[in-house]
Specification:
Keywords: Cell membrane, Membrane, Transmembrane, Transmembrane helix, Transport. The protein has helices spanning about 1-30, 50-90, 90-105, 110-125, 130-150, 155-165, 170-180, 185-200, 200-205, 215-225, 230-250, 255-260. The protein is mainly α.
């Protein structure tokens, strides 16, 4: 009886949490107009909102995808060797380094954005995709280092030592042994880096002053001011922007679970 009650409560909580998502999809299929007047079910669905969203926000979706992919590649390229080094060194300086990484995660995003704006203005990285990739890496790299190091601490040193005995250098042993074994944690860290970048609004708003480079989060924000009578297009854009994250989360679900607990037990 207790389990049944808990299950019912859990389903109710889940329904409440997912209702905004349902209403977003429902409103995107409604005829043009205010969402408050929309029916509870899309009895006469129309895809006009999606057509308009793709026509007007398709470029922003592509921009966000490029920025997110670049953030994942750069974050993993920097975080993976750093995490491995921090897992192998046995020094009190490692603890200080990890503390610095944790502190960097606590700095408010607006502080980082303002500092980057001043620097970008001097070196010409404002309104550029590389500038947004570097900015998003400020969140992705520290988080990836913490996840990857936790897993790499559990790697048996004998595997790398055996490769070294067979004649492999440090770099070759790292690429041929450590990276394949760390696949789950790499996917987990990469996915979170993608989500950080894909959902970023603060850096996009601060570091872009022109319309040439505009991620979809900023596109939706600016869309609201001009499409108050066409909420189906706004909601359709929100649905389209949620699809990549949903697909990646579903596809990488088993890797996320394995990567998250991979370093919990040696």
């Amino acid at each position: 009886m207790k389990r049944t009650a808990y299950a019912i409560i859990g389903v109710l909580i889940l329904c409440v949490m997912l209702f905004p998502v349902y209403w977003m999809v429902n409103a995107s299929l409604q005829p043009s107009g205010n969402t408050l007047t929309a029916g509870f079910l899309p009895l006469h669905p129309t895809f006009a909102g999606y057509k308009r969203a793709l026509d007007e926000q398709g470029g922003n979706l592509v921009t966000s995808m490029i920025i997110a992919a670049g953030t994942v590649v750069l974050s993993l390229a920097i975080a993976t060797p750093c995490a491995y080094a921090l897992s192998q060194f046995r020094s009190r300086w490692v603890s200080i380094g990890l503390l610095a990484i944790l502190i960097s995660q606590m700095i408010p995003g607006i502080v980082i954005a303002n500092a980057l704006y001043t620097a970008y203005e001097r070196i010409g990285l404002l309104n550029s995709i590389p500038g947004l990739i570097l900015a998003n890496c400020s969140s992705g790299i520290p988080f990836a280092i913490l996840i990857l190091r936790s897993f790499m601490l559990s790697l048996p040193p004998s595997l790398v030592e055996a490769a070294r005995v067979d004649g492999a250098g440090l770099f070759r042993a790292f690429v041929a042994i450590v990276l394949p074994i760390s696949k789950n944690s790499l996917i987990t860290a990469g996915l979170f880096s993608f989500l950080f970048s894909w959902s970023d609004f603060l850096f996009a708003l601060t570091l872009t002053t022109k319309g040439g480079v505009r991620p979809v989060t900023l596109g939706i924000y600016q869309y609201l001011g001009t499409q108050v009578q066409n909420w189906n297009a706004v909601m359709a854009t929100a649905v389209l922007s949620a699809i990549p994250a949903i697909v990646l989360l579903v596809a990488a679900q088993k890797y996320i679970a394995a990567g998250a607990i991979g370093g919990a037990v040696k």
